[in-house]
């Protein structure tokens, strides 16, 4: 009789255990914050970053891994900010445009890595836009194509949009530092609350969880 009661007790506990396992481990106010009422029209993950930010340099492999493993149909976008005092806003704008040109040519990650390495490993900061051009052209990008794209309306417009978003989020005190990830325009991720030993995997789980919240 006692054995039967034990079996029944275990059976009754199984649904509770299953519920506990399926319960989300991520908490609003700890792992993420809600910073907008509405989500974006299309699913996306945006990273606000600066090539002059040491933390962004360290985070870049994690960001690239996340971008490569997002669910189908989810776009990863990088938004370069210009408030780091290591360089003028004009030079930072040029870096943003150079990244956008490289991305459009299918070499975004490659050129981003090169820019980060130039600043943080080689310790050879850019003095002017021509320094940026010289670095980018090393990566099999045609000079004439690059020059034309850097001056194009679409690239300048995209860089101006980065600045507009930066200012809007800064004024709302959403963007207070970089790197910063925002999912679907609504959820701001707190990287510091995630396991630093298993950051890439846990970040992937959190992003997927947030992408499903309003699906």
TrEMBL record:
Signal peptide: 1-20
Domain of life: Bacteria
CDD domains, A to Z: DsbA_DsbA
PROSITE patterns, sorted: THIOREDOXIN_2
Stated family: Belongs to the thioredoxin family. DsbA subfamily.
Entry keyword annotation includes Disulfide bond: yes
Protein name: Thiol:disulfide interchange protein
MF (Gene Ontology): oxidoreductase activity
Keywords carried by this UniProt record: Disulfide bond, Periplasm, Redox-active center, Signal
Taxon lineage: Bacteria, Pseudomonadati, Pseudomonadota, Gammaproteobacteria, Chromatiales
Disulphide bridges, residue numbers: 53-56
Gene field: dsbA
InterPro entries noted in UniProt: DSBA-like_thioredoxin_dom (IPR001853), DsbA/DsbL (IPR023205), Thiol_disulfide_DsbA (IPR050824), Thioredoxin-like_sf (IPR036249), Thioredoxin_domain (IPR013766)
Compartments, record wording: Periplasm
């Amino acid at each position: 009789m006692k054995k039967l009661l034990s079996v029944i007790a275990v059976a009754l506990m199984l649904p509770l255990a299953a519920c506990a396992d399926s319960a989300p481990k991520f908490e609003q106010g700890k792992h993420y914050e809600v910073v907008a009422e509405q989500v974006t029209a299309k699913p996306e993950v945006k990273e606000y970053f600066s090539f002059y930010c040491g933390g962004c340099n360290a985070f870049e492999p994690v960001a690239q891994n996340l971008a490569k493993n997002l669910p189908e149909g989810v776009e990863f976008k990088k938004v370069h900010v210009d408030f780091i005092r290591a360089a003028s806003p004009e030079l930072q704008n040029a870096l943003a445009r150079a990244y956008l040109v490289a991305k459009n040519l299918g070499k975004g990650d490659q050129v981003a890595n090169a820019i980060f390495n130039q600043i943080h490993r080689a310790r050879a900061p850019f003095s002017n836009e021509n320094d940026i051009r010289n670095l980018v052209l090393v990566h099999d990008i045609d000079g004439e194509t690059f020059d034309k794209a850097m001056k194009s309306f679409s690239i300048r417009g995209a860089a101006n949009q980065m600045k507009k978003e930066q200012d809007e989020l800064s004024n709302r005190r959403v963007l207070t530092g970089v790197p910063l990830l925002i999912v679907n325009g609504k959820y701001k991720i707190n990287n510091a609350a995630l396991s630093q030993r298993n950051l890439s995997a846990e970040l992937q789980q959190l992003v997927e969880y947030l992408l499903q919240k309003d699906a």
